[in-house]
Structure formats: structure tokens, C-alpha cells
Amino acid sequence: MSVRRIVTVSAGLSTPSSSRLLADRLTAATERSLGDRGIRARVRTVELRDLAHDVMNAMVTQVPTGELPGVLSDLAEADGVIAVTPVFNASYSGLFKSFFDVVDQGALDAVPVLVGATGGSPRHSLVLEHALRPLFSYSRALVVPTGVYAASEDWGADDEGARELNERIERAGRQLALLAADHERSGRDPYDEPVAFEDLMSGLGT
User: Which residues form the NADPH-dependent FMN reductase-like domain (predicted)?
Assistant: First the structure.
């Protein structure tokens, strides 16, 4: 079974956070869709609040330290990225922006990215189009057509509201899975994901 690497980035500041909840649901939808295609997802979930000091240090010194180098390395090797931020002042959070400011230029070139955001009011949903999509387009990422915004009221929505949010999540997950399935990282090591021994033997007679 082939493998695709998915890195999920959540910029939620509280524990638990609605941003992490949305990130987890988008990740699960992507995993399911990849599984339907016979592809296994290898997921790393990154909580930016745990990296806040490392991110700020890297902004000042231009040298990533602590856990940040490993996260940046995984991001550069990703076949797909899920990026979710809370909305502050009608835009992404400062921590979210600072993290992607320290990502190497070109690391997201042609990488599929699914954008998501959470906020208190549905009127902030346009943050997906006027802030998040331009940010990743500037990085030359492939932003999936469907972004997902979840307002506070969506989490306690009635059956229809919950169904609409779930449909957006599933559609976005399918779109990311489709792009990630076809993504080829530059310099992919052909021995990085060797075929399992049982798969090699499955076509041989006894």
C-alpha cells in the first residue's frame, strides 16, 4: 500500500480548541478518502501553541531551534497540508502567520493545502478567501477549492447545520486526498516506502 504524508497545523490557543477540533475532523476526512483509494496516510499534527517560543526565536535569529526544525522538515516532505487558524481581527492569528513566515521559501511549492478557520461569527467566513487562500497562493501551494470555516454556532448546530458542516469537511477532505494521491515530492526516495514483504509474496504460488 502506498503512503502519503499529511501534516496538520492547528493554531488554536486553548485546550481544547475549536481549531484543533476542526483540524482533526479535516484530517480524518482526508484519511478516509485516501483509504478509499488504497493509500495509507501518515499524519503529523502540529499544535503551534507548543512551538510559540521556537517560532518567535526563529523570527528573530533566523535559526530554528527546539522542535521546530523537525516540524519544518516534515512540512517540506509533506504530500498534503491541512492548515487551520482561529480568526483574530478578521484575519489569521499572528502565531499562524509567524509560523508560515519561518517556513523555507519553496517548501510548499506545488504542495496541496486545505485551509480552515474557526471564529465566533459566520460573518468571518470570508477570511478563507481574503487571507488564507492568498497566503498559500503566494507560497505557490495548490490550495484545494473547498475551504472550511466553522463558527461557534456550527458546533452546537441542529441536524441540518451539523450536516452542512460535515458535508463541507468531507468534500474538502476528498479534494485534498485527490491532490495528495497524485503528488510527487521532488527527490522522493524510491526506498522510502518499500513494498511490504507480504504484498511481494501475495502474487506467488506455493
Answer: 5-155
Owner of C-alpha cell 459566520: 122
Task: Note if the bond before 16 is cis, omega within 30 degrees.
Answer: yes
Q: What are phi and psi of 103, to 5 degrees?
A: -70, 135
Q: Is 43 helix (H, G, I), strand (E, B) or coil?
A: strand
- Each residue of 8-30: pLDDT tens digit? 999 999 888 999 999 999 999 99
Q: From CA 170, how far away is CA 87, in angstroms rounded?
A: 22
AA identity, residue 4: R
HEC string for 113-126: EEEEEEECCHHHHH
Residue 206 has pLDDT above 50, yes or no: no
Residue 71's φ and ψ, nearest 5 degrees, are: -65, -45
Flag whether the pTM goes above 0.85.
Answer: yes
Beta-bridge partners for 112: 142
Question: Are residues 81 and 103 in contact, defined by beta-carbon separation less than 8 angstroms?
Answer: no
pLDDT at 186: 53
Using one digit for the tens of pLDDT, what is the confidence trace for 121-148?
888 899 999 999 999 999 999 999 999 9
For domain 2-201, is the CATH number 3.40.50.720?
Answer: no
Neighbour-count burial of 167, counting CB atoms closer than 10 A to its CB (0-12 exposed, 13-18 middle, 19+ buried)? exposed
